[in-house]
Amino acid sequence: MARAATTADAWNAVAEPQRRRILTLLRGGEQPVTEVARALRMDQPCASKHLRVLREVRLVRVREEGRRRLYALDARGLRPIHEWVGGFQRFWNESFARLDAFVRELAEEERKP
Amino acid sequence: MARAATTADAWNAVAEPQRRRILTLLRGGEQPVTEVARALRMDQPCASKHLRVLREVRLVRVREEGRRRLYALDARGLRPIHEWVGGFQRFWNESFARLDAFVRELAEEERKP
DNA sequence: TTGACGCATGCCGATATAGGAATATGTTAT
DNA sequence: ATAACATATTCCTATATCGGCATGCGTCAA
Among B22, B17, B25, which Cα is nearest to B48's? Predict the structure, then answer.
């Protein structure tokens, strides 16, 4: 079995930094492809392809307006990610506490060997 | 350019469901490889490889104890993900009509700084 | 010492990228 | 009808998976 497709789910789609930049940009409102490309300094086919991935996992919606296609954010698919990661919240604070304790321990041993 | 390595960052590491299951399991405390494999019904080499990825992106730490290696959660790398996704929180509960309103609000604030 | 155990790594195969260039499709304007 | 514009798609190449399976390599026990 190969690696999961980027279109498999929001997790895979969002693992790509360019696509995250697109989503961030779209928080400012819907944008046509060319504008996305210009704002993020990528060429148009590249933007189209990333937007397609985002569309397939439903993180963006498209609206046709004349010859342009306006892409808009649909962040609902990010919610499960936020919730899953949120389940670790207490562990990253705890990690700091443990690390601090460990570091102090080391310093203590250093002082009186 | 090919797709980013799974070891490129926490985003890519965590895009794989099996690895997410491992992290969830490790919230219950450190575990040796075989135990991870048993609990998640994967074979040992598979567990080892996933754990290696998680180790390379520093989402887990290893501690050697005799012939076993105890893997422990280090959730700090999840924090940036939580924060980034959290930036979209206001966008997923609201209906899209409200979202439009919000966008206009932003534009308004932009106009008069 | 000889196994048995715990774990990591190597190889294979099928699949899927991301970006770049060229091109196809479709819409508006002249 | 034709040109200009906006977007999507196709072809290409290099690279990296993920799971199975076999194997290598320390470490502990009899």
Answer: B22
